[in-house]
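Hey, I'm writing a tutorial for new members on how sequence and structure tokens pair up, and I'd like a real worked example in the thread rather than a made-up one. If someone can provide the structure for the chain below, I'll link this post from the tutorial.
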Amino acid sequence: MKDVAERFLEYVAFETTSDEDSGTSPSSAKELLLSAHLAEELRAIGLNDAAVDEYGYVYASLPATHGYENEPAIGLIAHVDTVPGVSGTGIRPRRFVYRGGDIPLSETIVTRVADFPFLETLTGEELIVTDGTTLLGADDKAGVAEIVQALETLVNDPSIPHGRVAVCFTPDEEIGEGTAHFDLDRFGADFAYTADGGLLGELEYECFNAAGAKLTVNGRNIHTGSAKNKMKNAVLMATEFIGMLPAAEAPAHTEGYEGFFHVGDISGNETKTVVKMLVRDFGKEAFERRKRFLESTADYLNAKYGAGTFVLDMQDTYYNMKEKILPAFHVVERAERAYRAEGIEPVAVPVRGGTDGARLSHMGLPCPNLCTGGANYHGVNELVSVDAMNKCVSILVRILRADG
């Protein structure tokens, strides 16, 4: 039987970067390679119905222990893709026991305690880090590995009673499409958990309301030699819009329940420039105010430069799961009991991002988010604790136990 870290290292060898511009589902054919591998692995450990659907979702189930068929069917979910924008090609992980202090990843890239003070709490633990050239993929292959390990634990130990367990590994969570083709009927759970969180002990059941914004700036290019009073440089006009965003309301200056505007991509030239942004806030009213602010800023600049110069397209992507979780709070309480039974005090923290669980909760499947033991996601300083991963496996098993 493999250990959870071995599984994780096996999974990160698959490149699974999602692609928000592909227009396909899954967005990257490379995701299918890991999905197929996982379906085969699940069948090998005894989940005989494991299969990949046409969209790259892996579905599987573990039947209830005899006599526990009337227990709630519990679902476990994680995603196979990694975030675009940071290389996931040729990941070279390093596994070692952390003795404290800064962690050199390469000659020039260092994970410093000054930047990441939580590192001191991991002293003495076995960590897996990158070589500073790629992300690691703990978001969310740590969650995938922990779920598979927990399932194998149940299969190999029939003394642990459980109801039906539903499993789904989704593609494209990182580009907001993780539930676009999620089949709730096929999944067949009464409630579920995403294993897609951070440091050990974190338990999340509220998140941002979120929208994506695409700003197209239409300029007019004129030869620089005769451009006076004629050129309308779309690049400069786009930066003017960005400069009107509240400087202190960006991810680098916010925490906790503070919302933000995030400019994630800008591309183009004098004739046409496109800016992609994220809009985030926990409160519904504050979320709507942020969207109105972008609209009024575009209107103001159109009045200055001419109608149609700034074209703003906004789409809501997910909503705060809290309003759907509170009426089914027994799901959170079950997780809290499991954490404590494993000697971990749960810490409820707001998700400053999104998970498949947010959308699924609004689709009628209560789905809080569990810790996976990783940190510094979406960057080269990403890491995961092997000790925490083992604890997370135990927490999952405890959640699934019918006598827990």
